[in-house]
Amino acid sequence: MQRQGTAQAADSVGPRVVLGVSGGIAAYKACELLRRFVESGHEVRVVPTDSALRFVGEATWAALSGQPVATGVWESVEDVPHVRLGQAADLVVVAPATADLLARAAHGLADDLLTNTLLTARCPVLFAPAMHTEMWEHPATQENVATLRRRGCVVLEPAVGRLTGADTGKGRFPEPEGIFAAGRAVLSRGPGAPADLAGRHVVISAGGTREPLDPVRFLGNRSSGRQGYALARTAAARGARVTLVAANSELPEPAGVDVLRVGTATQLRDAVRDAATDADAVVMAAAVADFRPAEYASGKIKKREGEEQAPITLRKNPDILAEISENRDNSRQIVVGFAAETDDALVNGRAKLARKGCDLLVVNEVGEHKTFGSDESEAVILDSDGTVTPVPFGPKEALADTLWDLVIRRFS
């Protein structure tokens, strides 16, 4: 009876996560990441390096995880921790990952418990780098990151912001909430799922452009950016280097993603074209205004009693999707468009696919209470080869993963 109870308890254990912590000042932020994993039902073993323990002590990790903390290869030798921890894990997350840790991982060194664990792990591995800008941009670090990505590891892009001391730049530790979301996305793909976008650069537009009429008014739309952000999160979880061009979205930045913020259609066009020069795929999920005011009023347009307001003249905005499709930087670049329709969605979608010249087109019905601002969506994805892929109503992350599956099929 006791054995049966033990077996049932083992079956009830959530996904097993190894949280590796290397020796950077951002180690204290990993405590919040640990708390999120534990509170969502994951069993977490923390493996800090000796340097990490200078920032956060062993007792803190043990208290937050509810598990013994593995600190060295010579502890509990009878359990062979340098092998067992990696073998038993469903996910290994290294946060923060310093330049030194990335270098040792890329070169297969095994000089402490964490690097031993990385060598024995056969599950997905996710790195959340944090270091000074100069260290991140150094060719040695970039080559180590490229090596890890080629091997199928997910290496998030560091954030941009305040670093240690007065320095500011790229290299800041991504927010724990974002790293947690990326880890959950990796786990959701199931055991053994490859980082099938590793080595790829994808550019995604999101949100809705705003065309200013005067200092306080603009022409815009209801797009929140949720679908584009879901595409960015899922692409990063599948190993891609992601550039997100975000138009007027108030959503938190996805961890590990380079975010470029824009306002108008012209600004979005310039940012996407610049980012797409080395992109393997460009996904235009943003709702781009078709028109802009022909003239901008430098002062607020006032309503005057007894006078009719002069009509507002509109001018067409550039057709960014058609331009990207026609002027691709390489013949292998995949271009994806979105069609938000209020009626005759498939008919209009097929016409738009032919007119825009893109490879894939995501067609969905929109309205005041449909799609825009919602966490769920349903759509049909049209392929220029005639294939039609329906995506049932569900989370926007599910639509994003289906779309990436189709993009990857085109890569092959």
TrEMBL record:
Domain Flavoprotein: 16-177
EC number in record: 4.1.1.36, 6.3.2.5
GO biological process: coenzyme A biosynthetic process; pantothenate catabolic process
Enzymatic reactions: N-[(R)-4-phosphopantothenoyl]-L-cysteine + H(+) = (R)-4'-phosphopantetheine + CO2; (R)-4'-phosphopantothenate + L-cysteine + CTP = N-[(R)-4-phosphopantothenoyl]-L-cysteine + CMP + diphosphate + H(+)
Residue ranges, annotated region (Phosphopantothenate--cysteine ligase): 202-412
Lineage top rank: taxon: Bacteria
Pfam families membership: DFP (PF04127), Flavoprotein (PF02441)
Gene Ontology CC entries for this record: phosphopantothenoylcysteine decarboxylase complex
A molecular-function term among this protein's GO annotations: FMN binding
CC cofactor: FMN; Mg(2+)
Keyword terms, alphabetized: Decarboxylase, Flavoprotein, FMN, Ligase, Lyase, Magnesium, Metal-binding, Multifunctional enzyme
Domain DNA/pantothenate metabolism flavoprotein C-terminal span(s) in chain numbering: 197-408
Cofactor binding note: Binds 1 FMN per subunit.
InterPro entries tied to this protein: CoaB-like_sf, CoaBC, DNA/pantothenate-metab_flavo_C, Flavin_trans-like, Flavoprotein
Binding site for CTP: D290, K300, P318, D319, I320, L321, F338, K352, K356
Region (Phosphopantothenoylcysteine decarboxylase): 1-201
Keyword Membrane among record annotations: no
Entry keyword Cell membrane: no
SUPFAM superfamilies per the UniProt record, alphabetical: CoaB-like (SSF102645), Homo-oligomeric flavin-containing Cys decarboxylases, HFCD (SSF52507)
Family according to the record: In the N-terminal section; belongs to the HFCD (homo-oligomeric flavin containing Cys decarboxylase) superfamily. In the C-terminal section; belongs to the PPC synthetase family.
Main function: Catalyzes two steps in the biosynthesis of coenzyme A. In the first step cysteine is conjugated to 4'-phosphopantothenate to form 4-phosphopantothenoylcysteine, in the latter compound is decarboxylated to form 4'-phosphopantotheine.
Protein name: Coenzyme A biosynthesis bifunctional protein CoaBC
Gene name per UniProt: coaBC
